[in-house]
Design a protein that fits this description.
This protein is mainly alpha-helical. It folds into 2 domains: 72 residues; 56 residues, no CATH class. Helices cover 76% and strands 0% of the residues. The protein is built from 3 helices and no strands. Helix 1 packs across helix 2. It is elongated. It comes from Hibiscus syriacus. This is Protein PPLZ12. InterPro entries: Band7/mec-2_domain.
Length: 153
């Protein structure tokens, strides 16, 4: 069967023709459909923002848990090192070992500061007497920080 114009498919369909009254119907409701689509888009954006904030809060919480576990592991390691050192080296007390560890931490911090900062000069007192002074200063800073926390609470 040969037709002029559009060929018919196996199901007998031809091209779709949109009637003029249907075209007018679509134009009449277009603003309403756009408004509803905007409302749905706003709701979707709000849900995405809430989920994004929840994920960020969870990430910060897990980061805090990780830092707390890291500090606990450091504290446990220090405790073991202090006990081992004080038992192996006779005549040393736990306080002397803590002083040694604090000074090591202080020098590691100074080294990291020098490596990561743009500063190129770090002035550190040297000599055997100054090591004790640095330990006392660190101990005083820690006591001042803990007393400041008690005053705040």
């Amino acid at each position: 069967m040969k037709n002029e114009g559009w060929p018919f498919g196996p199901a007998g369909f031809g091209p779709f023709i949109v009637l003029p009254e249907r075209r007018r119907f679509g134009k009449d409701y277009a603003p309403q459909r756009l408004h509803i689509a905007g409302v749905y888009k706003g709701e979707a954006d709000k849900i995405l923002q809430v989920k994004r904030e929840e994920a960020e809060a969870e990430s910060k919480y897990l980061g805090g848990v990780g830092v707390a576990r890291q500090r606990q592991a450091i504290t446990d390691g220090l405790r073991e090192n202090i006990l081992d050192f004080s038992h192996k080296v006779e005549g040393t007390s736990a306080m002397e070992v803590m002083d040694l560890i604090m000074i090591k931490q202080y020098f590691d911090t100074i080294k990291d500061l020098g490596n990561s900062s743009k500063n190129t000069n770090v002035f550190i007192p040297d000599g055997p007497g100054h090591v004790k002074d640095i330990g006392e200063q660190i101990r005083n800073w820690l006591m001042e920080a803990s007393s400041a926390q008690l005053n705040v609470e």
